[in-house]
Amino acid sequence: RVHGDFCLDFVSESVMAAKRSQGRTSGPSTAPAPSAHSKSSLEGFGVLPLPDGLELAAAGVAPAVAYLETQNLGLPISKSFIQDELAALDGLIDSLRPVSKATTELRDRLVFHFLRLHPWTRANSEQASFELDGAGWSAQWVNLSVKPAETLKYVKTACKRAGTAVPESYRWANDDMVYACTFDAHSSQLAAWLRKYQTRGFTFFVVRRGDEAPVSIVIRGLNKFTGLTATDEDDTSDASSNKRLFFESERAHTDADALFVTNKSNGENAKGTLRRIAGVWWVLAGSKNTCLICPIDVDPRAVYDNTNPTVPSWMILNAFHDHARGLATRGLLDDYARALDDNDWVVLFEFNNEHHEHLFPIHEDYCEAFAIRGREGVAIAPADAFAFLDRFAFRCVDRSLRPASDIDAVVTEVRARRDIEGVVVYFMLGGAVIGLLKVKSDFYTIARAIRQIFWRMPDYIIRVCAERRKVAKTLGPLVRIPLSLLRSVQTRLTNRMRRMEQIPAHESQEDKWIAWGTQFAEWWLQKKLAGAADAAAQLDAANEAKAKFGSLFAEFLTAFDSGADTFLSPEAQAALLDAEAVVEEREGDDAGNDGDGGDA
Question: pTM for the complete prediction?
Answer without folding.
Answer: 0.83
